[in-house]
Amino acid sequence: MHYTYYYHVPSVPSFGNFAILIIAIIIVVLVMLCFLGRQNRGKYHGFLGRLYDFLNFRSFTIASILKFFYLVFALLILLGFLSAGFESGFGGFIASLLGIVLAEVVLRIVFEMMMLVVVGVSNIIEINDKLGGAKDHPHFIDPDTSKYAEKISQGANALGEKIKETAENIGKDQKEEPSTSKEDDQKN
User: Fold this and answer.
1) 133 and 65 within one domain
2) Which end of the chain is more exposed for a tag (fewer CB within 10 A), N or C?
């Protein structure tokens, strides 16, 4: 028996996908302008405060993730070496104890090096907050988005006015043009 399978693979993204992409971009821009701006720092508390800090990369979840994986790997090393030690006699057991110590030390050093970066960035952010921020520093990337929100709002209002004007002009042009359909056919 021979089966034939047909799959429809669209070659061009549909209008719906494009519309979803545009809507997502608009939502992201609005969240960036209205919620994540520097003018809102310290304004939110509780869940919104944690969300604000999370979305502005002022708090990091990687530290918790690294701690979790450190514990998982430490436990795997311990259980793996112990099981190998119990299976290989007294000499193998002593070697596995030495292996546990060495592997745990190496694991700890690797994870401490990763945590140094995370803790260092957290400390820099905390120092920056205590010093009032580096708003005048040219390399500080935390723009005040309120001026952009105002400009976008003005641009959107101007665009709305232009669209309204254009729609009114099209309506006027259609009223002024003589009809060339049924009325002309009836005259002839």
Assistant:
1) yes
2) N
Residues 6 or more apart whose CB falls under 8 angstroms from that of 88 comprise 95, 96
Our count of domains for the chain comes to 2
Query: Does a structural domain hold residue 134?
Result: yes
CB 52 within 8 A of CB 59: no
Is residue 62 within 8 A of residue 121, CB to CB? The reply is no
Determine the structural domain holding residue 109 and report its residue range: 60-142
- Rounded to an integer, what distance in angstroms lies between the CA atom of residue 137 and that of residue 38? 15
Q: Are residues 50 and 75 in the same domain?
A: no
- Amino acid sitting at position 67: K
pTM metric for this prediction = 0.50
Let me know if residue 35 belongs to a domain.
Answer: yes
| pLDDT at residue 138, rounded to an integer | 46
Phi-psi region of 60 (alpha: psi -120 to 50; beta: other; left: phi over 0): beta
CA distance 118 to 112: 10
CB 143 within 8 A of CB 38: yes
With respect to residue 180, please indicate whether it lies within any of the assigned structural domains: no
